[in-house]
Amino acid sequence: MVDQADKLRKMVAKKSKKNYRAIAVTSGKGGVGKTNIVVNVAYLLSSIGKKVVVFDADLGLANVDILLGLKSKYSLIDIIKNGKKMKEIMIDYDKSFKIIPAGSGIEEIANINEPVFSKIQNELNDVIKDTDVLLIDTGAGISNKVTYFLKSSDEIIVVATPEPTSIADAYAMIKIMVTNYKKENIKIFINMAKNEAEAETIYKNLNKICRQFLKKEFKNIGYALIDKNLPASVKQQKVLSKINKNSNFTVAMKKLINNLFKENIKVYDNPIAKFFASIFGG
């Protein structure tokens, strides 16, 4: 009997074991480039055979589908109000890259409560069983609708830029995750840096504050330089990593993936391009 009970427990544990990584990309301040990071990482992961789902969790201000030039017939509001299932609202970028659109400019989405979050979580669990990576593009700031997704994630990437307000808000986000929710698996990504030295300085200064007040250090998962190709790709509603495989931003995303997933995506790192990026931003 004991042997049978032990086997049953092992079977249940195996069945309930999660086989995907839930990674939330967030920031304390808006306009730091979270969504561009998410969609480019998702595209590059799908290009090497990973099954990726992007959850646009910037509730009320969602724009992943717009950024990718896609039209979504349904959104999260249809799950909440109209009885739709998560699989019915998902849209495909390609066969390995799917998006869950949240809907933009919808007050009911922007102000949802804990029971609704739980409903969304249950629906989400049903559609990501065969997924390798769930990337959650959160809103900016420290509201409940942001922290709910962060505390439910396996890993958190906090994005900061050289702006002092961005650095201060990034620390505020990290502090809340550590002190209120006991999150440990937090990583830092520096975006829109002028050069590598500036990115490294920002990371060191942010970690210095974390050491001083939180008694913790967090891993540097990478950095991206200012890249004039990025706003051009946004206007075209194209993924930069798809249309310009060797741009500075694409290279940064490939390095991020190699660091985060222990992959070995080939990177053509052009020092001349880096030099001109530091001068002209591209």
Give the structure's gist in a few sentences.
The protein is an alpha/beta fold and 282 residues long. 51% of the residues lie in helices and 18% in strands.
Explain the overall architecture:
With 282 residues, the chain is of the alpha/beta class. It has a single domain (20-280), classed as P-loop containing nucleotide triphosphate hydrolases (Rossmann fold, 3-Layer(aba) Sandwich), CATH 3.40.50.300. The protein is 51% helix and 18% strand. The chain is built from 14 helices and eight strands. It has helices at 2-16, 34-47, 64-67, 76-82, 86-89, 107-110, 114-127, 144-151, 164-181, 196-214, 229-236, 240-243, 248-261, 271-280, and strands at 21-27, 52-57, 91-94, 97-100, 133-140, 155-160, 186-193, 219-225. Strands 3-4-2-5-1-6-7-8 form an eight-stranded mixed beta sheet, sandwiched between helices. Helix 10 (196-214) links the parallel strand 7 (186-193) and strand 8 (219-225). Helix 2 (34-47) crosses helix 13 and helix 9 (164-181) packs parallel to helix 10 (196-214). The chain is globular, with a radius of gyration of 19 Å. Mean pLDDT is 87; it is low at 11-16.
